[in-house]
Write a structure and sequence with these properties.
With about 270 residues, this protein is an alpha/beta fold. The protein folds into 2 domains: about 140 residues, 3-Layer(aba) Sandwich (Cobalt-precorrin-4 Transmethylase, domain 1), CATH 3.40.1010; about 100 residues, Tetrapyrrole methylase, C-terminal domain (Methyltransferase, Cobalt-precorrin-4 Transmethylase, Domain 2, 2-Layer Sandwich). It has 6 helices and 10 strands; from the N terminus they run βαβαβαβαβαββββαβ. Helix 3 packs across helix 4. The protein is globular and about 60 Å long. It starts with 8 loop residues before the first strand and ends in a 7-residue tail after the last strand.
């Protein structure tokens, strides 16, 4: 562990898919060192996420006197018509705007020898922007701090556990992809893929009878919903479930495993 002296310290803590019991012992120890928890305000539609964060703090933080500081979320171009280059440019602009707001919050709200933290869903290494944004904050020179990362349980792990399936079959790679990359089907040479960041249920548009799906929403929480079966048989059910769940909760977080069934598949 680096001696940070009187320099500000920032912790990026993986908090798991949402259930307080899936916060690691290392994360609990880190949570109890924090003076200021920074939280991105994603609006009323994501208020359920903030409630889960609050429950984790209430369950695991025994240190008195910590504060929660809300950082506004800058607007982002989420146009579905963007090509890959346009999408990456829109994300870069959003990251830069976020970095500026986070830098200002750290400089204003965290003392020169204080410990701040961001709680990241799942694990900070998997489809989360926080580490790239933190690097942008440091590169700007606006505020100095040292930071470290505490890993967490991912929704990918929670999905496999909930369905009681391994992610890979013997000798196969594990492929994890955003939904925009599987709209035309699984990539060549791959029989299994974990799909994340789906704004709808993209797999419903894939016409391949040999595909099966293992889908889960609100994984590891009391609201968890699971559906599995041949893709052609359950795609409509998953699509309806997503719409109903989003209407009920105001938000949805889901992931799924697509697998091409093979007659000679080994387990």
């Amino acid at each position: 562990m680096r001696d940070t002296g009187r320099m500000r310290e920032l912790l990026v803590i993986g908090m798991g898919p949402g259930h307080p019991d899936q916060v690691t012992v290392q994360a609990v120890k880190a949570l109890n060192r924090v003076d200021v928890f920074f939280r991105i305000d994603k609006g009323d539609a994501r208020s359920g996420l903030n409630r889960m964060r609050d429950e984790i703090l209430a369950r695991h933080v025994s240190r008195p006197g910590y504060r929660v500081v809300t950082v506004p979320e800058p607007p982002r171009d989420r146009s579905g018509a963007l090509d890959q280059a346009g999408y990456e440019g829109a994300v870069a602009d959003w990251h830069q705007a976020r970095a500026a707001l986070i830098a200002a919050a750290i400089a204003t709200e965290l003392g020169p020898d204080g410990v701040g933290a961001f709680l990241v869903w799942g694990d900070p290494s998997l489809y989360d922007s926080m580490l790239r944004i933190i690097d942008r904050v440091l590169a700007s020179g606006t505020v100095e701090f040292w930071y470290s990362v505490i890993p967490g349980v991912t929704s990918v792990q929670a999905l496999a556990a909930a369905h009681r399936v391994p992610l890979n079959r013997v000798g196969e790679p594990i492929h994890i992809t955003p939904a925009r990359r599987i709209s035309g089907g699984l990539p060549d040479g791959l029989d299994s893929a974990v799909v994340m960041l789906d704004r709808g249920f993209t797999a419903a548009g894939i016409d391949e009878p040999s595909l099966s799906v293992f889908w889960g929403a609100y994984l590891s929480t009391t609201d968890e919903v699971l559906i599995a079966g041949p893709l052609g048989e359950v795609a409509a059910e998953i699509t309806r479930a997503r719409e109903q769940l989003r209407a009920r909760h105001g938000w949805i977080m889901d992931a799924y495993l697509l697998r091409r069934e093979r007659d000679n598949a080994s387990d």
